[in-house]
UniProtKB/TrEMBL annotation:
Entry protein name: Putative membrane protein
Organism: Sodalis ligni
Membrane-spanning ranges: none
Gene3D superfamilies: 3.40.50.880
InterPro entries: Class_I_gatase-like (IPR029062), GATase1-like (IPR010768), STM3548-like (IPR017027)
Annotated ranges, domain Putative glutamine amidotransferase: 5-254
């Protein structure tokens, strides 16, 4: 049986640091990826993951429906809207290109599967810089983004709570025992008709954590926390339920 093809977009960053040692100073640049845990977890499953790092997505994310049709699902993770809006032809040369946010929305409407995972540059993000609010992608998602910084930091941690009505949902198949703690989320507004499968405890605000929905013929999903540290600690990644949850998410999206 052929594997289902999934495009993971984002979840990388570059850090520039200045080191001061007495009178002297020097700089360094490092590349980081938060996708390794997800890629490792899904390596031996029915899903074939293509990872498009954030800096490459600016130029290499598909510009046509045919390009997107190569995938059964697209996952946006910790990448802002500008990365898909401001291709170098637009930003540097003032030329026109296809609107890839509208393309992604329309692909979803025609039966694609779209997910967004949380992070500092997901939903509206830190200082509102992710900028997914009032975009075509937001139209397809099962939630609305806030128009400002939407981060909720919970340094003491919280354990996800499955909504009682969805205890037997396929999203939680083969996941047993107590869930590990998470350290934060992006706050969102659930659209009418969407299903909140899991949320934060009431003491932590009761905010949505895992939401599913439909956009015309397509399936959509959001996980408002991260898929790697810092909001999703290493203890969560080491938990057997992490892999199973990812499998269940993709299975629901692509069935």
């Amino acid at each position: 049986m052929s594997r289902k093809k999934v495009l993971l977009v984002g979840e990388t960053w570059v850090t520039s640091a200045t080191h001061f040692k007495g009178f002297d100073q020097f700089g360094s640049v490092t590349f980081h990826s938060g996708a390794q845990g997800l890629l490792a977890a899904l390596a031996d499953t029915e899903f074939e993951i293509t990872h498009l790092p954030a800096h490459q997505a600016v130029e290499d994310f598909p510009f046509t429906a045919e390009g997107l049709s190569a995938y059964d699902a697209v996952l946006l993770s910790d990448i802002g809207a500008n990365s898909l809006l401001l291709h170098p032809d637009v930003w540097l040369n003032g030329k026109t290109v296809a609107n890839r946010l509208a393309l992604l929305r329309d692909w979803t409407a025609q039966g694609g599967a779209l997910a967004m995972f949380g992070g500092y540059l997901s939903f509206q993000g830190i200082d509102g810089k992710a900028r997914w609010h009032r975009t075509p992608v937001e139209q397809a998602l099962p939630v609305e983004c806030l128009p400002y910084d939407d981060r909720i930091e919970i340094p003491e941690g919280f354990r996800p709570e499955i909504e009682p009505a969805y205890q037997g949902h396929a999203m939680f198949s083969d996941i047993t025992g107590e869930w590990p703690v998470l350290l934060g989320i992006n706050e969102v507004i659930v659209k009418p008709g969407s299903e909140v499968l899991a949320r934060l405890p009431k003491a932590a605000g009761g905010h949505p954590l895992l939401v599913t929905g439909r956009y015309q013929q397509g399936r959509t999903l959001v996980w408002t926390s991260d898929i790697s540290p810092h909001w999703l600690p290493q203890s969560f990644m080491d938990w057997p339920g992490y892999k199973q949850l990812l499998i269940n998410m993709l299975s629901w999206m692509t069935r």
